[in-house]
Every structure is written in C-alpha cells, then in structure tokens.
Amino acid sequence: xxxxxxxxxxxxxxxxxxxxxxxxxxxxxxxxxxxxxxxxxxxxxxxxxxxxxxxxxxxxxxxxxxxxxxxxxxxxxxxxxxxxxxxxxxxxxxxxxxxxxxxxxxxxxxxxxxxxxxxxxxxxxxxxxxxxxxxxxxxxxxxxxxxxxxxxxxxxxxxxxxxxxxxxxxxxxxxxxxxxxxxxxxxxxxxxxxxxxxxxxxxxxxxxxxxxxxxxxxxxxxxxxxxxxxxxxxxxxxxxxxxxxxxxxxxxxxxxxxxxxxxxxxxxxxxxxxxxxxxxxxxxxxxxxxxxxxxxxxxxxxxxxxxxxxxxxxxxxxxxxxxxxxxxxxxxxxxxxxxxxxxxxxxxxxxxxxxxxxxxxxxxxxxxxxx
Length: 371
Ligand code: ATP
Known about the structure:
By secondary structure, this protein is an alpha/beta fold. The chain is built from eleven helices and twelve strands. It folds into two domains: about 1-105 and about 270-370, Isopropylmalate Dehydrogenase (3-Layer(aba) Sandwich); about 125-260, Isopropylmalate Dehydrogenase (3-Layer(aba) Sandwich). A ten-stranded mixed β-sheet has the order 2-1-3-12-11-4-5-10-8-9, with helices on both faces. Adenosine-5'-triphosphate binds next to loops. This is 3-isopropylmalate dehydrogenase.
C-alpha cells in the first residue's frame, strides 16, 4: 500500500526508462513542480528508479525486487517509456516492466483520454474531429495479456489464450460506469460502451453480459455495446460519437494507438493505469529509438500524463490544490498549441522537446489560476 496516509509530503516513484523516456520526463517534472508552486500545492518528493531495457542490459534484470517495492510504496508512479527493440529476453520478448507493474499492482484500468487540443494538427478533416473528447478504458491485468511469456510454442504450433474473470470484469465496468457518470456531471453525454467480439467468442459474450449486469446499477448511464471491428471503423469514420469506451486488454492496446493518432500522434497521447490502491502515469508512446538524443521528442503526452497524476492525487488524497495544478498544466498545454503555429516534429513541424516545453512554461506563468 502507498505510504503517505500519515506523511505530509507526497512521494513519487520516477521511472524515466529508456530511449526518449528520460528526455520527456525532465521537462514534465519541472512544469509539474511549477504548476504546484503556483496553486500552493504540496511539494512532491521524487525518487528516481532504475528499470527498463538498459537496466536489463547492465544488470541482467529489467526491474529488481527492491525497485518494485519502492515503486509500490510510493504514492504514485510517473513512468517514461521502457523497452528497446534490440534488447530482448532469451524467449525473444521485449523488456516491459510496465506490464509487470500493471499485473503486480493490479492496475486494472488503463485510462486513455482521446482529447484533441485545438490548434494542434490532427489527421481528420471533418470539423467534428477537431473537438474530440472521449475516453478509452483498456482492461490491463487480464485478457490476452495473461498469456504473456506463458504461451505454448512448438515448431508447428503456438497457443496463447484469453482469460477474463467475473471479478476483473466487474471492477473494470464499475470503474468505466463511474467515469461515465462523472463526465456526465460535467456535460458529456453519459454513454458508456462495452467493446468486444461477442458474436464470435464466448469469452466476450460473458464479458458483455457482465457489463450489462453492472450497468443496471447506473440507470442514468446510456449503456451500449459495440463490436471491436465496427469500433475501429468508427474511430476513423465518426469518432465524435464516443464518450466512454471500455474493452479487453489487447483490443484496448490496439484501439488506444488509433486514439493517439486521432490526437495527432503518439507524442500527444497521455495515459494512466489505475488500480484500487495504486496509480501509474505514462505517455502512450514507447521509447521511440529512431529519434533518441535528437531533441525531437514531443513532451506533450508526458506533460499531460503528469497532469493526470496531479488530478488523481488531488482526488484520492483530497487535495484541491493538486487538482488545480492539474487543471493549470492542462490549460497551459492547450494555450501553447492554441495559436496553431506549434508543430511538433512528429506532426511534420520543427518544434522539438525544448521549444514545446518553453511554450508550455510561458503559458504556465501567464494563465490565471482559475479557468
Ligand atoms: P511500444 O511498443 O513500446 O509502444 P512502439 O515501437 O510501438 O513502442 P513508439 O516507440 O511509440 O512505438 O514509436 C512509434 C513512432 O512514433 C516512432 O516513429 C517514434 O519516433 C514516434 N514517436 C513516439 N513517441 C514520440 C514522441 N513523444 N515524440 C515524437 N515522436 C514520437
């Protein structure tokens, strides 16, 4: 259990990781600290922890037990990105301590907001796609990922299986339905859709059935179910119809990258992995080995993930100043892109890590504390 119930300061386990992870982590922490200063929020104490592919290369282990224990004891985990294509375990699988953390800390709800930032370049021409605001919840402890590292492999045959439990699905759907309710209170449509493939797999008939069972306790929510393939189509054809989507681990893995694309690219998309006792916050992107050390990494996703962490800390620890800092940081990002001239490298422009950070920092000073 995180340990700050009886402490004044809030402890953050910082895991910058590999590739561009450390490059985007540094500015995100500086901006977060400044936002907290402005709102009179608590001081965060950071402990940097060594884990990832480079750690594996150096020490033979991607994340030591000691590091895991420290991460588990912190009030929140701020995570950059881990894994490098050429660093693999003997079975050929990439190093991914983030998956171990999700499973071991039971971070069952992968929260992937898809919110377009006005002024930031996005791929769809339809004006309705310029104002997207929906959330994808990816189940993160079950599904096809339960099989990771355990698949049966012979020269002629492989087998990896889905696992979905009633208890895991119930807590997932309750989380999604509650989120739908909170969003509805702020003006969203209040629709929550289970995304599955129930016409083909019994596993998903089971998943969908549990969704509608849990939805009975939320009569104010418009509970729906969509097929995953139709959802992929609608993410491109009419993504503005969505409010909250909730789905299995592997489906969510794929759909959330499509969601990141709708926001303009991997460098724009934040995420949170939430459990009953812990929260881990990280950009949706990976380590981007192709641009490491070039100053081209877009820090926006990492900054917005840090804002999600502040928001979560504000809510779970009842610290309004933390929530206010989250809001300020998000508004500073929005204001940085608002003039429409800030074009990250990944979106065909010339703004690198420093330029984007500077623009957000300027807005952080200029904006009023209240929206
Ligand atoms: P993973 O499997 O760990 O998610 P990946 O190999 O699928 O990783 P990324 O590492 O996210 O993918 O990289 C995909 C592409 O997006 C690469 O071309 C990379 O340069 C680009 N990219 C990812 N993150 C950023 C970022 N923050 N800024 C700029 N470009 C990025």
